[in-house]
């Protein structure tokens, strides 16, 4: 007799496999909803299947499948008569709302779809963008104002959502001066400056990116609070004399050796008693959780020179650079799930 799935203890559900295979549809449905401005339509008022089928110019049969898939994914709700936004989509996916970051999600999904067919090749070849030395996609952005503005306009809100969560990790009331290393558009500095009027900020980033930050800082009315310091952390020294460093969404762009260079420079930029907050994507020490962040590691494997490192690996980088009294703080921000605070004795 051959193996039987009906033997005791031998009955396993194969459903997880089809779920995984079909997961493409989840991002496909979100992509399509964003492209068709579904959440903007539903923000003004709930709509029936008939209304939506007309507005989306979709046959009723496809509209029903599409809308029900959106509802199963938690993007919209079906009341029995109407479809309406969930609080999640109403807060983050309606254009013009303060926390909208649908543009970034659409950009990410389109980028992922480009990898879908070539992933095996790309993984075999290492970094797909042929990045050399200390290059990242941001060197390219830094030389192209239009492109970097486009990217940071999408990324800025997403990144600023991390700011309130940082306050659980460090008491900023006893800090005086903050260096935001690779601070991008200034999303974190701008948000923290609003809540802590006594703090002085310096944002260090590539020259072209500092130009982008200038625009965001001006729009936030924070010019008097945030000084820009253009430079390259692989070629230049960081400005020094700070008692707090923010290093947000940087470590996973780089190899361990490159991180060693960056963290040594951070150490030198701090006064004694100064603290560093490493904010980013941290895999559990078992290396394969959480699920969504394990997928971010694929993206870093094919798009950067770095990796999504575990909490332990982050701590090793920090300890080797001389930081002590390391403390972990899990946070629940988009694509950032952790903060590690370290101290320069
Ligand atoms: C993923 S973004 C993070 C931006 C910001 N810290 C945040 O959390 O939103 C990475 C940042 O590192 C900056 N960066 C990359 N290479 C750099 C270098 N060699 N010197 C200084 N900054 C660099 C990029 O320009 C970009 O702003």
Instruction: State the CATH class of the largest domain.
Output: Alpha Beta
Shape: globular
Q: SSE string, helix = H, strand = E?
A: HHHHHEEHHHHHHEHEHEEHEHHEE
> Which residue ranges are poorly predicted, with pLDDT under 50 across at least 5 consecutive positions?
none
Supply the number of structural domains.
2
The amount of beta strand, in percent, is: 15-25%
Key features of this structure:
single chain; 46% helix; 2 domains; 7-stranded mixed β-sheet; binds S-adenosylmethionine; Arc Repressor Mutant, subunit A; 345 residues; alpha/beta; 9 strands; Rossmann fold; 17% strand
Task: Explain what the structure shows.
By secondary structure, the chain is α/β, with parallel strands linked by helices. It has two domains: 15-93, Winged helix-like DNA-binding domain superfamily/Winged helix DNA-binding domain (Arc Repressor Mutant, subunit A, Orthogonal Bundle), CATH 1.10.10; 119-343, Vaccinia Virus protein VP39 (Rossmann fold, 3-Layer(aba) Sandwich), CATH 3.40.50. 46% of the residues lie in helices and 17% in strands. It is built from 16 helices and nine strands. It has helices at residues 15-22, 24-35, 38-44, 49-55, 60-72, 87-92, 102-116, 119-125, 137-142, 145-160, 163-166, 187-195, 207-219, 256-269, 291-303, 311-320; strands spanning 76-78, 83-85, 177-181, 200-205, 226-230, 242-248, 270-280, 324-333, 336-343. The strands form two sheets. It has a seven-stranded mixed sheet with strand order 5-4-3-6-7-9-8, sandwiched between helices. It has a two-stranded antiparallel ribbon with strand order 1-2. Strand 8 (324-333) and strand 9 form a beta hairpin. The model has no long low-confidence stretch (mean pLDDT 92). The site of S-adenosylmethionine (SAM) has 18 residues, from helix 12.
């Amino acid at each position: 007799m051959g193996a039987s799935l009906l033997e005791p203890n031998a009955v396993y559900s194969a459903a997880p496999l089809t779920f995984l295979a079909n997961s493409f549809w989840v991002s496909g449905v979100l992509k399509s909803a964003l492209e068709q401005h579904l959440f903007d339509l539903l923000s003004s008022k709930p709509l029936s299947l008939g209304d939506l089928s007309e507005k989306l110019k979709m046959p009723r049969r496809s509209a029903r499948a599409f809308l029900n898939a959106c509802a199963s994914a938690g993007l919209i709700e079906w009341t029995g008569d109407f479809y309406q936004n969930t609080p999640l989509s109403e807060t983050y996916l309606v254009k013009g709302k303060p926390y909208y970051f649908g543009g970034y999600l659409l950009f990410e999904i389109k980028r992922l779809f480009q990898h879908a067919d070539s992933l095996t090749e790309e993984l075999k070849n290492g970094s797909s963008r042929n990045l050399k030395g200390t290059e990242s996609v941001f060197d390219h952005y830094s030389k192209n104002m239009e492109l970097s503005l486009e990217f940071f306009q999408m990324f800025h809100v997403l990144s600023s959502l991390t700011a309130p969560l940082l306050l659980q990790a460090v008491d900023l009331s006893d800090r005086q001066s903050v260096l935001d290393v690779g601070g991008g558009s200034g999303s974190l500095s701008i948000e923290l400056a609003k809540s802590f009027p006594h703090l002085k900020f310096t944002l260090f980033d590539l020259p072209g990116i500092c130009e982008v930050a200038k625009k965001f800082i001006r729009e936030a009315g924070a010019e008097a609070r945030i000084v820009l310091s253009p430079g390259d952390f692989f070629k230049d020294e960081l400005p020094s004399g700070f008692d707090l460093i923010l290093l947000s969404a940087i470590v996973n762009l780089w190899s361990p050796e490159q991180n060693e260079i960056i963290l040594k420079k951070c150490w030198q930029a701090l006064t004694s008693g100064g603290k560093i907050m490493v904010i980013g994507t941290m895999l559990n020490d078992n290396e394969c959780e959480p699920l969504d962040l394990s997928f971010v590691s694929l993206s870093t494997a094919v798009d950067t020179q770095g990796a999504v490192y575990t909490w332990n690996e982050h701590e090793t980088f920090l300890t080797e650079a001389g930081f002590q009294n390391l403390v972990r703080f899990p946070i629940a921000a988009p694509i950032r799930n952790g903060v590690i605070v370290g101290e320069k004795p």
